[in-house]
Amino acid sequence: MKATRTSLQAAMVLLPVLLSGCEAASSMAGAGLSDPKLMKSINDAYEARDNCLAANVHLADAFSTSAQSLAANVAASCQTQTDVLNALSNPHGDPRITSAIQKDSSFRAMGYVLKARGQG
After folding, report:
1. Are 85 and 48 found together in one domain?
2. Residues 11-32: tens digit of each pLDDT
3. Count of the separate structural domains present in the chain
4. In the chain, which end has fewer C-beta atoms inside a 10 angstrom radius, N or C?
5. Cα 50 to Cα 7, 23, 47, 56, distances in angstroms
6. Are residues 65 and 104 both part of a single domain?
7. Which domain holds residue 56?
8. What is the pLDDT of residues 93-107, one digit of tens each?
9. Higher pLDDT, 68 or 28
């Protein structure tokens, strides 16, 4: 009887874990992660956004203003590329994903500014 009770307890613990794995896989498929063409498009959009950010940090301007201000200007100048990335990555318009992509663009812009200043 003890072995049956232990097996039942183990099953009660493992069942939700196994089911959550199925949920994660289906949500990845819903996000297009199973579509190689879409994944390539998303990767290309990331690359285009990052290239834009890097190109818009002008060495002449790198020291003329605060790092935060320059990073904000750089991120704003690449908003078109960020919007393309968001449209591909977030087809359902989830505001949390949009916010995360915007924050990532700002974070990366700051990284390029600091690198141009020799601080990163």
Report:
1. yes
2. 455 545 555 554 444 444 555 5
3. 2
4. N
5. 52, 32, 5, 10
6. yes
7. 35-116
8. 999 999 999 999 999
9. 68
